[in-house]
Amino acid sequence: MTARYVEHPSPTGRIHGGQLVPIPETELADVTVWLALPVEDGTQTWEGLRAATQPNGSYKICAVPLFAYDLNFGDRVAAVASLEGPLVATEILEDGGHFTFRVALHDGGASLPQVVAQFGAMGCLIEGWTDSLVGLSCEPAEAQSVADALTNQEHAGRLDYETGRQRAV
Questions:
Q1: What global pTM score does this model have?
Q2: Any bridge partners for residue 162, and if so which?
Q3: What per-residue confidence (pLDDT) applies to 168?
Q4: How far is CA 14 from CA 39, 94, 153, in A?
């Protein structure tokens, strides 16, 4: 089986003064925690998320997961060092309460700057992956309004989205 590693290229940010700026939690992130994604076509893909080591030895996720389900910004996880050395998440210890949305942009639809501006103004944390894929994270109080706005944009043919949270809070 082959392995593929996808580590986030940019820090999680928030709109401030019309600009996307890294949030303070990204400066606390001192490790990358890897999560195994489902095997596809004989390839084991691993998503690397920045995390902050906690005093009790757990790790707080300081990134918006773009591929792993049921893991969100602010969740606390247990992890162990793999035989190769990097940390691998073994379980979610505490749900941080955030909701994750993955937004796929397509030709002729919403642009990345439009999505960043609209959902940043709604209070979402933003993590870019590419010009056509962005992760959004929001607090529970904003989750329904963010989902409604994404649904409206999807019905208008401007983007596609999915939620990263599959289990109940």
A1: 0.91
A2: 102
A3: 63
A4: 33, 23, 21
